[in-house]
Amino acid sequence: MSVYPKSLRKTVSEIYNKAVTTGNVIKFESTSKYLKTSNSAEGNLKYHLTYCDIDGQKPQKPERGDVVKENFNPFLKHEPELTVMDNIMDNEYKLVLNKYPIVDEHLLLVTQKQVPQSSLLSPNDLNAAYKLLKTLQQEFDEEDEEEDEDDDDVKKERYAVFYNCGPNSGFSIDHKHLQCIKLPNKLKTYQDFLVQENPEPYIPNVKRQPLEYESVAYANFNVPLPKNLNNDDEYLVMCYVSLLQRALTYFQQWEIEDPKDRLPTSYSFIMTTDWMTIIPRSKSVAEVEFESDKYTLGTNALGYLHMLLFKEEQKKLYEDMLAKKDSTPVEDFLLACGFPNNFGAAPGENDY
């Protein structure tokens, strides 16, 4: 029995459009541009940069004395106007709309019970997320779409699921939730290039390590997924665990004696129907410099999907990067929030 109905994409659109009309979803107006990398080592990569004055558009609600903001968890509140499905996999999850999206039809797959956002993904988490992708993607996969010659290996419409795990991953609510968005048209990430060169699915092990993309400065671990992966939950789990094992090596920190000084385990998990990725994270926010000006940027897993958000305080950076066609601040920022790419290094004996 399918976890999701075949009409899910249509249902999502109907509920989203109604919620926008009634004001239950506040869609932020934004501007997006592509910027091709100016780093010759990164080849043909490009970034999808979005400018949005979130603070200027977000409605200001009056303060309520009976609500302690830092303890408020919106995921425990039942909001039927935002709910797409409220009983998934024996009521383990619900599928809801993001109330303040920048991307249309931004979905959240949320556990019904409060589970920390630092917890590992379970087999059910992976199963529910993958089947969500397959259900949303199915109609697009069946359509005979004409692609430009340069992008004939990338679908015009496709989805990605991501999970921001740990305090340095960029999550804002400490309640386990995976997020699902439709990717921008023509977006081609480093994972797409990597899997294009290495399309054969496999489960990484001691003899064959996860794929790493050499041309980006930050550490990354990836694996291609089979085209027809239906009910093999174990396969997804083994892929996830193998990628996680490599990411966890960055947090061993044997030389640090005081636990308070240890870097908390954090990573960005991303999955499409074609591949799975884990990026170990050292920060969610970092400072970058451009044209003698300093800026503070933040990102969750979307930064490692080449999707960067610039707010009002970063407007000048956004405009200057596009005008000068210089992507250096983005590349410096992604490295600062991750770890240096140690491409090709064999895992040590003390790896998890």
TrEMBL record:
Task: Spell out the catalytic residues.
Answer: H177
| Domain Ap4A phosphorylase 1/2 N-terminal per the UniProt entry, residue ranges | 4-136
Q: Which organism is it from?
A: Hanseniaspora guilliermondii
Q: Fetch the Pfam families from UniProt.
A: Ap4A_phos_N, ATP_transf
Q: What name does the UniProt record give this protein?
A: Related to 5',5'''-P-1,P-4-tetraphosphate phosphorylase 2
Report the GO molecular function annotations.
ATP binding; ATP:ADP adenylyltransferase activity
Query: Which keywords fit this entry according to its UniProt record?
Result: Coiled coil
Name all ATP adenylyltransferase C-terminal domain ranges. 215-340
Coiled-coil annotated residue ranges, if any? 126-153
Q: What is the lineage of its organism?
A: Eukaryota, Fungi, Dikarya, Ascomycota, Saccharomycotina
Output the GO biological process annotations, alphabetical, semicolon-separated. Answer: nucleotide metabolic process
